[in-house]
């Protein structure tokens, strides 16, 4: 049956136009292909559809019946295409978004009621992820990630750059002191993020023209960033922590910033990742724009540390 759909569509255009030449121009194909397709259709159906003369053509009874059905078939196809376009041109339907687990829990999920109120016809399906993601196989429309290993063949749109703080608890500092330069971190117990495909055990610092990378070590590694913060608060060691993970620990004094006049230059942007396509669906674009506006520039969670960042040279 499927092999008959194209010949039926071509025949319908011939009947509608009243000539092979006009149908060929309309379809953008050769007149010989149109003629061959119609002849093959007649052969497969075992009936004559068109009475041909040198100057005109007319439909047989079978041709008239097939033409009526063909017009209905084309109308249904046009309606189906229009429905898809309408879905694509509006923020409705289902939007499947994957988000890095700790960041999503702290900063995205609480903001979603505002987005949903603006787009009431949209259904959100959120996956909080802590593993390497294949956007296509997991059926995602969009991935918000801070992973350094981006999926292949995807578009990656940076939304913001993470700031980092070096910190330790008052109890740790009381017992072990605090470093005056990055090189002194080799004498400290450093808490290391150790994920499935990445270990952040080389810490980067910059002060003016002075740049250094320090290989650190310690007795605690974990694959969860919030757990690093908890370990540091408990006095276990020094942590190189993304600022989005902080709530009020610095203000309350449960964590103390270290090496405050050094920049922490580890590169970790939040990126919106989606399959490469000619047109980005409006629902995806609307979500990206909302998240970018929600985060702000600089991100709202960095506001308490403006003075601290200003000290960095």
From TrEMBL:
<dbReference type="GO" id="GO:0003700">
    <property type="term" value="F:DNA-binding transcription factor activity"/>
</dbReference>
<dbReference type="InterPro" id="IPR036388">
    <property type="entry name" value="WH-like_DNA-bd_sf"/>
</dbReference>
<dbReference type="GO" id="GO:0006351">
    <property type="term" value="P:DNA-templated transcription"/>
</dbReference>
<dbReference type="Pfam" id="PF03466">
    <property type="entry name" value="LysR_substrate"/>
</dbReference>
<dbReference type="InterPro" id="IPR000847">
    <property type="entry name" value="LysR_HTH_N"/>
</dbReference>
<dbReference type="GO" id="GO:0043565">
    <property type="term" value="F:sequence-specific DNA binding"/>
</dbReference>
<dbReference type="InterPro" id="IPR005119">
    <property type="entry name" value="LysR_subst-bd"/>
</dbReference>
<dbReference type="Pfam" id="PF00126">
    <property type="entry name" value="HTH_1"/>
</dbReference>
<keyword id="KW-0805">Transcription regulation</keyword>
<dbReference type="InterPro" id="IPR036390">
    <property type="entry name" value="WH_DNA-bd_sf"/>
</dbReference>
<protein>
    <submittedName>
        <fullName>Transcriptional regulator, LysR family</fullName>
    </submittedName>
</protein>
<keyword id="KW-0238">DNA-binding</keyword>
<keyword id="KW-0804">Transcription</keyword>
<comment type="similarity">
    <text>Belongs to the LysR transcriptional regulatory family.</text>
</comment>
<feature type="domain" description="HTH lysR-type">
    <location>
        <begin position="10"/>
        <end position="60"/>
    </location>
</feature>
<dbReference type="InterPro" id="IPR058163">
    <property type="entry name" value="LysR-type_TF_proteobact-type"/>
</dbReference>
């Amino acid at each position: 049956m499927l092999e008959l759909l194209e010949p039926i569509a071509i025949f319908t255009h011939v009947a509608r136009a009243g000539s092979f030449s006009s149908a060929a121009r309309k379809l953008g194909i050769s007149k010989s292909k149109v003629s061959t397709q119609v002849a093959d259709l007649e052969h497969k159906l075992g009936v004559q559809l068109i009475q041909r003369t040198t100057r005109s053509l007319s439909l047989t009874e079978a041709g008239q019946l097939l033409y009526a059905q063909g017009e209905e078939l084309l109308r249904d196809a046009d309606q189906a295409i229009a429905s898809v376009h309408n879905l694509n041109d509006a923020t409705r339907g289902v939007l499947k978004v994957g988000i890095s687990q700790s960041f999503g829990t702290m900063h995205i999920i609480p903001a979603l009621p505002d987005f949903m109120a603006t787009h009431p016809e949209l259904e959100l399906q959120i996956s909080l992820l802590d593993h390497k993601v294949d956007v296509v196989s997991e059926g995602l429309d969009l991935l918000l990630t801070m992973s350094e290993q981006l999926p292949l063949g995807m578009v990656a749109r940076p939304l913001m750059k993470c700031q980092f703080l070096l910190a330790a608890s008052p109890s740790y500092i009381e017992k072990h002191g605090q470093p005056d330069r990055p090189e002194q971190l080799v004498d400290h117990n450093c808490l290391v993020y150790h994920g499935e495909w990445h270990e952040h055990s080389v810490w980067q610092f910059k002060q003016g023209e002075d740049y250094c990378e320090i290989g650190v070590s310690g007795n605690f590694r974990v694959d969860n960033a919030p757990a690093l913060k908890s370990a540091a608060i408990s006095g276990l060691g020094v942590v190189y922590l993304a600022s989005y993970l902080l709530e009020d620990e610095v203000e309350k004094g449960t964590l103390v910033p270290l090496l405050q006049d050094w920049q922490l230059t580890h590169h970790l942007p939040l990126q919106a990742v989606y399959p490469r396509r000619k047109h980005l669906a409006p629902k995806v674009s609307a979500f990206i724009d909302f998240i970018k506006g929600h985060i702000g520039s600089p991100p709202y969670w960095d506001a308490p540390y403006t003075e601290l960042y200003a000290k960095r040279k």
